[in-house]
């Protein structure tokens, strides 16, 4: 059975080979920007614009050894939920693919020596703030709170841009609390 690093290598290699517009988010992005995090899945955002995104996604996932049921993509798009989970065929690991119609705000980086893309630290913080706000009870959001603090501590972040958007998202008080 393969491990997490091999899983990530396969995904990055296949996504890059087909030219998919993607970026990592979640624990992998937090590990890149702030603090090492363990996880049993990979979270990736994929742009669903243009004509070839679907063929590229399906091809990349299959070539990476994932079990692909294309109906899951259709269901996610129709439901508005826009998150599809695919199981790895070689390990118990999974990938959550977040389908986005927006232009991806991403930053080039590396993982395991491979060129890849990560959600910008500002966007990652904003996503975490929205998750913290929605999480009940609040104690369950401690991991996300620590993630935000670590990103701010170890990465150059446009704090003013985060504050501006956090105000629009009604999460500015939460951001202020975490940055005290």
Features:
180 residues; alpha+beta; Beta Polymerase, domain 2; 2 domains; five-stranded mixed sheet; two-stranded antiparallel sheet; 8 helices; globular
Give an overview of the whole structure.
- The mean pLDDT is 95.
- The N and C termini lie far apart (44 Å).
- Strands 1-2-5-4-3 form a five-stranded mixed sheet.
- The protein is built from eight helices and seven strands.
- Helices cover 49% and strands 21% of the residues.
- It has two domains: 4-119, Beta Polymerase, domain 2; 122-178, no CATH class.
- It has 180 residues and is α+β, with helices and mostly antiparallel strands.
- The longest helix has 15 residues, at 4-18.
- Helix 5 (121-134) runs parallel beside helix 7 (159-168).
Concise description?
The chain is built from eight helices and seven strands. The chain is of the alpha+beta class and 180 residues long.
* Estimated structural class: alpha+beta
Helix count from the secondary structure assignment? 8
Total domains, how many?
A: 2
Task: Assign a percent range to the helix content.
Answer: 40-55%
CATH topology of the largest domain: Beta Polymerase, domain 2
CATH architecture of the largest domain: 2-Layer Sandwich
Please tally the β strands and state the result. Answer: 7
Shape, per Cα inertia axes: globular
Q: Write the element-wise H/E pattern from the N-terminal end onward.
A: HEHEHEHEEEEHHHH
Rg, Cα atoms, Å: 16 Å
Uncertain runs: none
Highest CATH level, the class of the largest domain: Alpha Beta
Strand order of the largest sheet: 1-2-5-4-3
| Share of β-strand residues | 15-25%
Mean pLDDT: 95
Query: How widely separated are the two ends?
Result: 44 Å
Q: For the report, how would you describe the main beta sheet?
A: 5 strands, mixed
């Amino acid at each position: 059975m393969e491990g997490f690093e091999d899983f990530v290598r396969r995904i990055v290699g296949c996504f890059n080979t087909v030219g998919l517009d993607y970026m990592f988010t979640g624990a992998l992005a937090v590990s890149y920007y702030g603090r090492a995090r363990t996880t049993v899945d990979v979270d990736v955002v994929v742009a669903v614009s243009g004509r070839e995104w679907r063929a590229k996604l399906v091809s990349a996932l299959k070539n990476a050894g994932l079990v692909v049921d294309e109906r899951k993509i259709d269901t996610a798009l129709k439901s508005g939920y826009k998150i599809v989970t695919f199981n790895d065929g070689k390990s118990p690991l999974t990938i959550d693919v977040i389908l986005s119609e927006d232009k991806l705000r991403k930053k080039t980086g590396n993982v395991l020596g491979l060129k890849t893309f990560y959600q910008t630290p500002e966007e990652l913080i904003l996503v975490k703030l929205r998750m913290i706000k929605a999480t009940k009870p609040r104690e369950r959001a401690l991991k996300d709170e620590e993630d935000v603090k670590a990103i701010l501590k170890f990465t150059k972040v446009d704090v003013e841009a985060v504050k501006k958007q956090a105000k629009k998202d009604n999460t500015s008080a939460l951001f202020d609390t975490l940055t005290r």
